[in-house]
Amino acid sequence: MDNLIGVNPSSILVHGPTKLLVDAYLWHDANLGMIASYTPTLFDVNDHFGIFRGVDMVEAFAQAINASCGFFIESKKLNCNLDVLKAEFTPLFLSIGQVNFMGFLEEGEKMICVGQIKQYKFRQMTCDGRIYKVPHSFDLHSYFENYTSEQFLAFDFPEDFLPIAELTNIVGKVIKKEKMLK
Amino acid sequence: MERQEIFDGLLEIFRSVRQIDPEKLKNATEETDLVADLNVPSTERINIVIKAEQVFDVQFDDDDVDDLGSKMKDLINLIIETKKIV
Question: Which of A121, A123, A173, A177 to mutate to test the interface with B (most CBs of B within 10 A)?
């Protein structure tokens, strides 16, 4: 497996169904980063005037990029499959550098998280990136099938992809579960 | 490489870390704790370890860094142990 495209996020992330905020991996390069999609549900916007919370957008970004990419890199380094890794490791959200919001999402609107890996060392990942609202009928899988690294690094997207947030220094770590118990 | 030499090298690294108050380094010892005494954020600890790898020309194991304590002596010991293996 060269990347996470086609893998069900629930098979790599340890979050339960109501807290899993990644629908699909669309583009992935182990060294560069990830593009993943999510559409907020009624549950996600409940008691929040129909709007997907900003903190949940950041959480979705961290799940899609820091956790998913971190797990993938570790599975390669340790030469083990994702199930074994998932049993031994857990993702940890460490810090947020800065987030600027430029828009919002309502229930049923689709977003993509675009995360570029700045550093990965000692199982800790620092990422920058953006979140875009995308037209609901847009065929994301087809669009990203031939998407290039150059496009990814330049945030090259169609004009009808609306920037919702810009994130810098999002830090997460893949940690051994035994360490969490101490 | 002597412990004192490593200690001095680590102090140099710490002086380059924006989050560390240089005043707090004046009385630093091997017992100085990066978190409790120097208020180094957990995310920055990794950057310090990465700089230590470069300065002391060593490569730490992921598990060893996971197990690393937060005192200066812990990092000194890791550098010495890693150099021995190499």
Answer: A121
